[in-house]
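New to this. Please check this record:
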Amino acid sequence: MGDAMTKILILEDDAALCKGIELVLNTDGRAFTPCHSVTAASAAIQNDAPDLLILDINLPDGSGLDFCRELRAMGVAAPVLMLTANDTELDMVVGLEGGADDYITKPFSLAVLRARVDALLRRGAYGKAAAVDGFILDFEKLRFEKDGQAVELSKTEARLLQLLFANKGQTLSREQLLERIWPDGTEFVDENALSVAVRRLRAKLETDPSNPRYIKTVHGIGYKWANVASEAASL
């Protein structure tokens, strides 16, 4: 079973810089989505949820900072690294309050950029709390609520929820989930452990666990967290 790819979205209108960032960050197990406008980045995220985003602030059709705020409001919890030409304290505070996890000022060393990105990915991404569809999901503090009521999850259930939510709308195979929930060795995990974890998570989060709205089974493949807002908008 191969490891799932780490997906990095780069939003930078300077095509040469965008390519340079991709080259310096490129290692086995990483896939990149280069975007040169907010419009392109918005479309890319609808198709495939990234594990990390690198956002330039000044873009031809908007602001990376505004885009970051929109992502957080939508519940996108992947870490965000901002690229900015300004290094004043005010710019830093505004960026971090807007939902960014880190920032780096231009011109910057690509080696420093690589170190910052590696640190964000090691931090175990998706540490920020997300509020969406009546849920509050705080994976850093392991605090979960549904419609204002606290929900107690085991560490396995929390990790499963984290993976599904961070990749909402995208099907994760049983193999991917097994490897990422039990990274110390899936050969020692009972083959029904994942099914049991899914069933328990549905019982705690779904209004009707037998007809789940969020945690969907994709028969023959695995599971996904349904992007309910997008599905509703398309009806």
User: Anything to note?
Assistant: Residues 110-122 form the longest helix (13 residues). The chain has a mean pLDDT of 82. Residues 129-233 form a domain with the Arc Repressor Mutant, subunit A fold (CATH 1.10.10.10).
